[in-house]
Amino acid sequence: MLGEVRLVGPNGPARLEKKAFGLLAYLAVEGATPKSRLAGLFWSDSPEATARANLRQLLRRLKVATGDVLVSGADPLALAASVDADVSALRGARRTELAARATELPLGRLLGQLAFDDAPLFDEWLHSARANVDAARRLAITAAIDAHERSGRLADALALAARAVELEPRSEDAHRQRMRLLYAAGDRGEALVVFQRLRAMLERELGIEPSRATTELAREIARSVEQRGPRSAPSASAIPLSVLRPPELVGREEAWARMEAAWAAGQAIVIGGPPGIGKSRLMHDFLNAVAKPFFFSGRPGDRAVPYGTHARVYSEMLAKIDAAKLAPWARAELARLVPALGQAPGPMESEADKIRMLQAEIEAHRLAAREGYDAFGVDDIQFVDAATAEAGQYVMAQLFQDPTVKLRAVLCYRAGELPEAIMASIREGVAFGLGIHIELDPLPPAGVRQLLGSLDVPGIADMADSIASYAGGNPLFVLETVKHVIASGALSRADVARMPPGRIGVILEGTLLRLSEPALQMARVLALLGSNFTLASASAALEASAAATAACWAELTAAHVVHGMGFSHDLIGETVLATLPRPVEVLLRRRLAVALEALGADPALVAEQWRGAGEPCMVGRKLMDAATSSRAVFLPREAAVFYERAAEAFREGGDVVAANEVFKMRDRLLQRAGAADRQPSR
């Protein structure tokens, strides 16, 4: 069906009329179809009885011409099991199957050059089907390219990228992909030649310039400086433990006193402030002094996945308590979030199913309370996904009303980054006396001097005024400046005074520049993945051995870039992203998308990587999967949002037909959800 359309049987090629080929193509692409639909497609201008009679005659002539039954079934009709069509390989195939078939698929259009002016409805279908088949074929080639990249076969990947350009010579996406691969292979000159050829072709044939995305990619490649060999790993500077975690919490006496009063009154505590101001340190020190707490945190990337933060919170919580003491029904429900607990129930189909899961979470908190835990602190709540926030509010409201559970909470957030709905809820709680809200300010010069004096670093206290001027009273900035002074050996007041005020990014960039190339690449993967980073995903994306992965992580730890399984501070991750060249980002995101999918990651996370790689149709497909996942945990409105985003991605990628179909799916889902909301409660 692709290219020069033909039918080959045991006795060689068979000659068929145009509509017979059209019928076979439709069934190959769409599958089983009612007779009424087929008759209307080919004879829309005829009465229904005439159209059905024409279809019967077409089927008879098809059987006579081939001597075989190619179309089976009474109604609906489908291709017989003995018929194999190349285009059928693109329908419903898994990504791995598509990759295997990429080099086998012909380059021609669906039904070649055949035209169907006498069947306008079929002609309309054929126009959209050709676009869909081309998109599926692009996916097949993309899957094969990804497979070659992951296996280190860049030459094979480049050969397929050239094939993609041959398939769609006017496609800037195909040209950009080839440019990126050439750049990754070290052939910067040929990548720029591809761009020059594309620009000349677009000017000659269409009278236009390449898009901004293509032009910026070429500019980035032209600006890049080829590495003349891997950078050697730096030796770790001896940073005193007092600098990594100052022994004293200075300048927060007033905030501490307010927290003690709120604690005695049974109030919740919310702490806000800019990055690095000391919110986390204040929360941890306070809760460790007055309670037996759990500590959780939102992380960059959580918002992309419904219940993303939730799953991590309960995984960490259940690891610290004796989950075997939970009732079997509660363990089963919590297995939805923590698969290690065993077999989870089937998909949620009602609000009652969701409430049952939340009740299981309440049971886990009650068990924790019996084991002595009486508080929890949540850092960076601005990153928490909406489904987790809603579920958390329900669970906490139930627990705070339970006289058998003593539970207190401290929440921290970055100023200016919290959704307005949550800020409004905080203001309402404060107004009703349920909690207090503390905004942390920078340390005054006296506080900076006190902090530096507690570090036990020779000569650093003499630089207090210069460091205070540079860091602006932000404790994190002060400590990063001290690390820079120690690492660079610039132990003089004049050296610090020459640094531009407020430019902590310069220091963080310097830290990154001292990393070896493999460690820097791992830091980039961590920044792109956020809360979903694992050493397995990094190893797969970077095609690194377990030993090499461990060595890179050890280097990042020694350089104080990472702590635990994340960055030592969010600002380091933001600096990594800010200094990441676009061509490298695209290559890493493509590899991460493939690696995450192979590891069974949430489809919404895979979609985010494809979005960063500039592949909107891949984004749309994965967001469709994310919508299905959301419906499985009874989050219809989240699913509707995924459908809407998928439709917009398809539209961005030029697949208007798919976009319209997905918009219809969203509308039907919202209608059903609205109808359910209007049902009387029992």
TrEMBL record:
It holds the Pfam family BTAD. It comes from the Bacteria. This is BTAD domain-containing putative transcriptional regulator. SUPFAM superfamilies: P-loop containing nucleoside triphosphate hydrolases, TPR-like. Residues 83-222 form the Bacterial transcriptional activator domain. It comes from Polyangium sorediatum. The lineage of its organism: Bacteria, Pseudomonadati, Myxococcota, Polyangia, Polyangiales.
